[in-house]
Amino acid sequence: MLLARVEGNLTATRKHSSFEGWRLVICQPISRDGQAEGVPQVAIDSLGAGMHQRVIISSDGSAARIAVGDSKSPARWMIVGIVDEVNPGTTALEDSVA
Amino acid sequence: MLLARVEGNLTATRKHSSFEGWRLVICQPISRDGQAEGVPQVAIDSLGAGMHQRVIISSDGSAARIAVGDSKSPARWMIVGIVDEVNPGTTALEDSVA
Amino acid sequence: MLLARVEGNLTATRKHSSFEGWRLVICQPISRDGQAEGVPQVAIDSLGAGMHQRVIISSDGSAARIAVGDSKSPARWMIVGIVDEVNPGTTALEDSVA
Amino acid sequence: MLLARVEGNLTATRKHSSFEGWRLVICQPISRDGQAEGVPQVAIDSLGAGMHQRVIISSDGSAARIAVGDSKSPARWMIVGIVDEVNPGTTALEDSVA
Amino acid sequence: MLLARVEGNLTATRKHSSFEGWRLVICQPISRDGQAEGVPQVAIDSLGAGMHQRVIISSDGSAARIAVGDSKSPARWMIVGIVDEVNPGTTALEDSVA
User: Fold this and answer.
1) Which residues contact C19 (CB under 8 A, 6 or more apart)?
2) C67 — contact with chain E (CB < 8 Å)?
């Protein structure tokens, strides 16, 4: 699962039937401090994430198929949480890398 | 799932039998503004995507096996949508990264 | 499975129901000597890892679904071990790369 | 699935029993114009690919297990096609990125 | 599957119960000529690989679960072969990239 930022919506008229009615968003994986990291992913969104909001996305195909209600869907990435806060760990209990 | 651009067709005479009759295309993952991102993928195409068109590709193996109609197929990536438009999110409701 | 360092906690009020009650942590994959390597992952933690502690994380979705007790969960990455020590291999038995 | 070039053979005396009798090759993922892209993969080869030949490789574990005839095999990547030709798409019907 | 070099052992007292009794090693993916490529992986080792030895590692979760004898294990990467030799392909039959 990745921390990501919602960066756009996709419109696709021709698509796999299981995506009908689902919002597709472009999610840019980011680091804790908001820097872009790695390849953007296209995810389905059932939580109503706002543009530029930070979210958690997961690549679990079986859960995505359940979410769209089609066991034959090629859906993989989905938004699984909307992030309220990232605690940067300033009160570290232990730092095992000297 | 990745946003990608169709960049070529592949011809392969010797191949796994489950790929017979399927169009194989090279899809370059791209960012929202069209920059290449990461490794190109070879995908099967059932939607008739045009060259240089923007598409959504998915790595879901179980759906690809269903698509080609062979439960033993090694197919993984497939084109699952053809992109009409990418909304760049200029009307952001919320920007949680200051 | 990746060697990683715990770098933050996530708070998410709106999330998939299977994540209720689970701690979500940001884990930065690292090399043997502690350098950041690749994209940070969001993982569930059942072992009580401390901030900045080195851990082993796994992307096994089926095990994560078992861990959270929900066969429909989109959970994937989880902390599967807390690292006490990394032996840097100074007493190599064999070095096959001359 | 990735477009790749065969770059070497591996000899391994001690290995998982399911690999007995299978040729193991190093496949370097490449772009459409032959540039190396990303991490080389070790794949099983049932198609008899020649050294330096361009191939399509797939990471589908279930198909690889079927190929080696052992449902408990850890095999993942396999060569699924030998590329005759890559059409670079000079006759694009549509270019959606201006 | 990746060609990798064993670069360290991990000690972890608190860990998922399925890892009890298993050696955990850090494996750095490498190219054919021994250069580091991509993110190091933590793998279970049942073949007794020596430090700095070249190995083949696989990410197949189902096989790893079988290996550790626990269908609920989050184990994914395992060493599946110890490399004796890498043939660099000096006698190429065909070079399809001019």
Assistant:
1) A80, A81, C12, C44, C68, C73, C75
2) yes
Token representation of residue D20: 């007995």
Read off the amino acid at residue D79.
I
- D98 C-beta neighbours (distance < 10 Å), count: 4
Alpha-carbon gap, residue B10 to E64, rounded angstroms: 34
Give me the sign of the Cα torsion angle A36, A41, A47, A52: positive
Average pLDDT over every residue of A63-86: 94
Q: What homologous superfamily is domain B2-82 in, according to CATH?
A: EutN/Ccml (2.40.50.220)
For C24-38, what is the mean pLDDT?
Answer: 93
For chain E, which residues make up each domain, given as ranges? 2-82
Question: In which residue are the tokens 């689902």 written?
Answer: A22
Which residue from B27, E9, E97, B15 is spatially nearest to D54, judged by alpha carbons?
E97
pLDDT value, residue D87: 83
* Run of H or E including A63: helix A61-68
Of the candidates D75, D56, D64, the residue with the CA atom closest to the CA atom of residue E57: D75
Q: What percent of chain D has a predicted confidence (pLDDT) above 70?
A: 89
Whether B20 and chain A come into contact, CB under 8 Å, resolves to: no
What proportion of chain C, given as a percentage, has pLDDT over 70? 89
Chain E nearest-CA residue for C34: E40
How much is the pLDDT for A89?
Answer: 53
A27 contacts A79 by C-beta, under 8 angstroms:
yes
Q: How far is Cα B25 from Cα C66, in angstroms, rounded to an integer?
A: 37
How sure is the predictor about C76, in pLDDT bands with cuts at 50, 70 and 90?
very high
How far is the C-alpha of C39 from the C-alpha of E82, rounded, in Å? Answer: 29
ipTM, two decimals, is 0.85
Q: Kindly state the average pLDDT of the residues C52-74.
A: 94
- Decide if D51 and E92 are in contact by the 8 Å CB cutoff: yes
The CA-CA-CA angle for residues A7, A12, A17, to 5°, reads 120
Query: In the complex, which subunits touch E with 3 or more CB pairs below 8 angstroms?
Result: C, D
Q: Is E17 helix (H, G, I), strand (E, B) or coil?
A: helix
CATH architecture of A2-55+65-82: Beta Barrel (2.40)
Size of interface D-E (CB pairs under 8 A): 118
Specify the pTM: 0.87
Give me the helices (H) in C1-98, please: 61-68
Distance of alpha carbon C4 from alpha carbon C39, whole angstroms:
11
For residue E36, pLDDT over 70 is answered with: yes
Residue with tokens 């770098």: C7
